[in-house]
Amino acid sequence: QVQLAESGGGLVQPGGSLRLSCEASGAALGHYSRAWFRQAPGKEREGVSCISKLDGSTYYADSVKGRFTISRDSAKSTVFLQMWNLKPEDTAIYYCATVRVCESRGSTYTPYQRAVDWGQGTQVTVSS
Questions:
Q1: What phi and psi values does residue 22 have, to the nearest 5 degrees?
Q2: Of 8-12, 24-28, 37-41, which range is least confident?
Q3: Is-contact 45 35, C-beta < 8 A?
Q4: Which of 29, 37, 95, 128 is the one with CA 20 to 30 A from 6?
């Protein structure tokens, strides 16, 4: 089991930026790729981005391509989600997760399998 803890959420104006962090620990950490999901009120949880455990390849939902960047530190324990040009529709609780693979169609992140471990979530609100 992997323990995950997100931080960095908050209130930001449209067009602003935020950087989320996800610190992870646990003996099984090296077995998994890392992903960010989000869930807006009244909507299903959706995959936002994923970074592969194998080679660091990155994948994004079409709605965030060109605005969000996923990265990790050299120890591969902390994963970041840098978000630019935020829009009101980005408002959601953001969760980091471990996943077995980054499922994708080309460069688009399209998760189907359930994530393995979840963080507690961090609220991102984009509003003027």
A1: -135, 105
A2: 24-28
A3: no
A4: 128
